[in-house]
Structure formats: structure tokens, C-alpha cells
Design a protein that fits this description.
This protein is an alpha/beta fold. Helices cover about 25% and strands about 25% of the residues. The structure holds adenosine-5'-triphosphate and magnesium ion.
Length: about 300
């Protein structure tokens, strides 16, 4: 569904350049539900905005389904955004209309892009647990309820890919659990691919795979494993999600040309600055400070 290879995003403002993504690699399978974590400023929103067609990549490769987002024309980008992706922000003030009802809010983008499908709009609000409140005006709903309306809106165009940037950032734990449960059900029932950006590591436990971004690069991956299952049963087995025995195993990401990112703390601990010595003993690769600096 998603392929990023050496994805670069540079923001230029006056004479200042910020390299927000510096050659990021990411692959997401169709039907996968995964999370992206990383410190503030690591490039998570930049990545999501590029995938959502809200921002243009600077270089590298990035494609979603059949769309090449580097080469896509402005015209194609409009239909890409309309037909392929749904987007949820941390604070949804920008795409909710306070004096319309929840139902009218979900119907609005349908009227603007495709055609109005009231039955589907109602079904979406039922999916997010707002059946009883769909005729309430937005400003009469709580923050968590408004966030669920935003989820319904993001699905109104029947997207294949749902992108959520800190979707639970401003709600309490109970609402956050509820929202994650909604995502999981949507993923299972309509097979939609979901990418969630989050700071919250406890949410990361609720998805199949977590990718950590560090300084605009994919650094490590955590893959959910259930020790009671054989390896062949792991992939795509959504029934084990949230299971008490499920654990995440951490892997370092190695790109196509063999590069990997070593955590800064490891380098500092070994006083490795610009070079290191590397040995292969037949089973392991050992990275240590340059010999000349030892002892
Ligand atoms: N429109 C922009 N113009 C210039 N620089 C930008 C712009 N948007 C983001 N940046 C810079 O790019 C880098 C990555 O920002 P980004 O918003 O992707 O981080 P993030 O991982 O989403 O952080 P947070 O967790 O705080 O939301 C930061 O250094 C940021 O200052
Ligand atoms: Mg962000």
C-alpha cells in the first residue's frame, strides 16, 4: 500500500533550510494497522502530510497504491485526496463545523466531493458509537465525541488508507481506548490500512507493528509476536491483537543498501564519533570504537 524509499523533505523558508526527512524508508502492507512513534520534531507529521497529499515530497520515492506522490500532478492530487485517503488530526477544529449536527458534518464532505449517502453517514456514526447523538450540534458534544465525529468524516469518502496524526492526543485514556478499538474494528471489518502517529507507547501495544523514526529516518521496528503461535501464524492474525501474551520485539531497520542507524546513546557510551571498527565473526557483527582509540 505504501512504499517510501530514501524519502526526503526539505522545508525552505527565506534562507533557512530544515531537513525534516532525510532518506526515510517505510513499507506498509495493504490491510495493515501500524503506528509511527518518535520524538517531537523527528518528522512524523511531515511524513503523514506527504502520504496524505497535503504536502509535497522533495526527493526520493513515495507511492501509495498506484499513485507516485513525487510525480503526481496537482490535478491528480485532488482526486487522490478525495478518493484514496482519510485524514484525522489531533485537534479537528479545522474540519468540523460547530453549528451543524454530527450527521450534517459527516454529510458535508460527501456533498462536496461525491454524492450524498445518508444511510452510509448514519452507519459511520453508528460505527463510532454516536448513533444516539448524531442529531446533536457539534458544539454540544464532548471533545472525545467530536474526535469520533472526525473519524466518521475521515471515512466518508470510503478511503483505502486512513492516516491519523496523534488522534488521541487530547482525550482521556478511556476515550483513547475507545478510539483505538474503533480503528481496530474498521481495520478488521472493512480491511482499511491504518497508519497512526502517536507519542503514546501504550497505544503502540494495540497495533501489529510500530516503526520508530529518529531524525527523519526510520530507525527501529517493533513487531508484535505472540509466543504461543508459530511464526507462520503471526502475519495478519488480527485475533491476537491486544492479547495479554502478545509482545513487541525490537528490530533495527536496515535499508536496501545496508545502512542502519545506531542510537546516539550507544555511540556516546562507546565514544564513537565519526568512525568505528566493524568485525564479523561468522554469526554476529560487532561494532566497536576505532582500535587506535582503545585503552
Ligand atoms: N512548514 C514547515 N516549515 C518549516 N519547517 C517545518 C515545517 N513543518 C515542520 N518543520 C520542521 O520539520 C521538522 C519535523 O517536523 P514534524 O512536524 O514532522 O515533527 P513531528 O515528529 O510531527 O513532531 P511532533 O511530535 O512535535 O508533532 C521539525 O524540525 C520542524 O520544525
Ligand atoms: Mg507532529
Amino acid at each position: 500500500m505504501i512504499t517510501c524509499e530514501g524519502l526526503v523533505k526539505i522545508y525552505k523558508s527565506d534562507d533557512l533550510e530544515v531537513v525534516a526527512l532525510q532518506g526515510l524508508n517505510l513499507h506498509v502492507r495493504e490491510g495493515e494497522m501500524m503506528a509511527i512513534i518518535g520524538n517531537s520534531g523527528s518528522g512524523k507529521s511531515t511524513l503523514l502530510n506527504i502520504l496524505g497529499g497535503l504536502d509535497r515530497p522533495s526527493a526520493g520515492q513515495v507511492s501509495v497504491g498506484p499513485w507516485d506522490l513525487l510525480k503526481i500532478t496537482d490535478e491528480q492530487l485532488v482526486s487522490y485526496k478525495r478518493d484514496t485517503v482519510g485524514f484525522i488530526w489531533q485537534s479537528n477544529a479545522r474540519n468540523l463545523l460547530p453549528y451543524l449536527t454530527a450527521l450534517e458534518n459527516v454529510e458535508m464532505p460527501m456533498m462536496l466531493s461525491s454524492k450524498l449517502d445518508r444511510a452510509y453517514a448514519k452507519q459511520l456514526l453508528e460505527w463510532v458509537g454516536l448513533k444516539e447523538r448524531m442529531h446533536n450540534k457539534l458544539h454540544q458534544l464532548s471533545g472525545g465525541e467530536q474526535q469520533r465525529v472526525a473519524i466518521a468524516i475521515s471515512l466518508s469518502n470510503r478511503p483505502k488508507l486512513l492516516l491519523a496524526d496523534e488522534p488521541t492526543g487530547s482525550v482521556d485514556t478511556r476515550t483513547s481506548d475507545l478510539i483505538m478499538d474503533i480503528f481496530r474494528r474498521l481495520n478488521r471489518e472493512i480491511g482499511i490500512t491504518i497508519v497512526i502517529v502517536t507519542h503514546d507507547l501504550s497505544l503502540a501495544g494495540k497495533v501489529d507493528r510500530v516503526v520508530a523514526i529518529r531524525d527523519g529516518l526510520t530507525s527501529t521496528e517493533f513487531i508484535k509476536r505472540n509466543p504461543n503461535l508459530d511464526d507462520k501464524d503471526q502475519i495478519g492474525d488480527h485475533s491476537t491483537l491486544g492479547g495479554a501474551e502478545a509482545i513487541h520485539e525490537e528490530y533495527v531497520v536496515v535499508d536496501r543498501v545496508g545502512r542502519l542507524q545506531i542510537p546516539k546513546s550507544y555511540l556516546t557510551a562507546l565514544q564513537i564519533t565519526d568512525k568505528a571498527s566493524m568485525e564479523f565473526d561468522g554469526e554476529r557483527i560487532i561494532i566497536s570504537p576505532p582500535k587506535s582509540l582503545e585503552g
